[in-house]
Design brief:
The protein has 5 helices and 2 strands, in the order H-E-H-E-H-H-H. It has 139 residues and is mostly helical. Strand 1, helix 2 and strand 2 form a beta-alpha-beta unit. It is globular, with a radius of gyration of 19 Å. The N and C termini lie far apart (49 Å).
């Protein structure tokens, strides 16, 4: 019961804080929590569109789980794959993702369908070398 009361009390205080922040926090500023690939991408997108970003991470360095992604970044239909004549599609990627145990097919579809544009954005925007293509997944 103590835990429930504490959580309810925190939620109550937090919602008041959110209401107050919404009234005074400038619309072109965001706080991004997490300095992994997703957080960094979100923060950079805000800056690209003229906003200001405060990025917070619990670690002494940014990177999150992305620093452990030694097998690369999955994507289907990327510019790199096309330049190497690798026949991969978002549909194949969706099937692999679902076969791998994805619990929310609608989210898996969004991830897979957007993957080429997302990977290409990383390569183009940050001059990343993602030219090494390897086969991952269940095929």
């Amino acid at each position: 019961l103590k835990s429930f009361w504490l959580n309810r009390n925190i939620r109550s205080r937090f919602s008041v804080t959110l209401s107050t922040m919404a009234a005074v926090f400038p619309a072109n500023q965001v706080i991004v929590v997490g300095g992994g690939l997703a957080g960094m991408s979100a923060a950079n997108t805000v800056v690209e569109h003229g906003g200001r970003t405060l990025l917070l991470d619990k670690s002494s360095f940014c990177g999150g789980n992305s620093t452990k992604a030694t097998s690369g970044i999955n994507g289907a239909g990327t510019k790199t794959q096309k330049s190497k004549s690798i026949p991969d599609t978002a549909d194949i990627f969706v099937a692999d993702t679902l076969k791998g145990g994805a619990k929310k097919p609608e989210l898996a579809k969004v991830l897979c369908i957007n993957s080429a544009a997302d990977v290409d954005w990383l390569v183009d925007k940050f001059d990343l070398d993602l030219s090494l293509v390897a086969r991952l997944g269940y095929r």
